[in-house]
Amino acid sequence: MFGIKWDLGKVVMTDIGQHRGVVSLLLAILILAFAVIMLTHETRLLTSNKEQLLTQRDVADIEWRNLLLEQSTLEEHSKIEYIAKHQLGMYRPSTAEEQLVIQQ
């Protein structure tokens, strides 16, 4: 045993050649493991992106509701102004027609 010189490269290649099926399965397992890692990372990124988009949607929805409230409030004023002008004949006085009331 001590007197024999082994060519390590040749021994390894011979062993790999004899166990091609096992080596192929090992390579397949490694490739699939890296694929699972990459897909898990991609899924986490997409989930994070989805959460950000849902938050933006909620903010936009709140802003939309506030704008609807503001619009309905402004419509009330314009409706009151329309009724005052057309049905009641009211108008905004000019500066010459304004009178100052002083409380004593």
What would you note in describing this structure?
Belongs to the FtsL family. InterPro entries: Cell_div_FtsL. One of its GO terms (biological process) is FtsZ-dependent cytokinesis. This is Cell division protein FtsL. Pfam families: FtsL (PF04999). By secondary structure, the protein is mostly helical. It has one domain. Helix content is 75%, strand content 0%. It has two helices and no strands. The longest helix is centred in the middle third of the chain and has 67 residues. The protein is rod-shaped, with a radius of gyration of 41 Å.
Q: Could you report the average pLDDT, rounded to the nearest whole number?
A: 90
Could you spell the SSE succession in H and E letters? HH
Low-pLDDT segments, ≥5 res: none
Number of strands: 0
Q: Into how many domains do the coordinates divide?
A: 1
- How much is the radius of gyration in Å? 41 Å
Rounded to the nearest angstrom, the distance between the terminal CA atoms is 124 Å
Largest sheet data: none
Helix/strand class: mainly alpha
Tertiary shape: rod-shaped
SS summary, helix count: 2
Q: Which bin fits the share of residues in helices?
A: over 70%
GO biological process, one term: FtsZ-dependent cytokinesis
Pfam family, one: FtsL
Keywords: Cell cycle, Cell division, Cell inner membrane, Cell membrane, Membrane, Transmembrane, Transmembrane helix
Transmembrane segments: 20-40
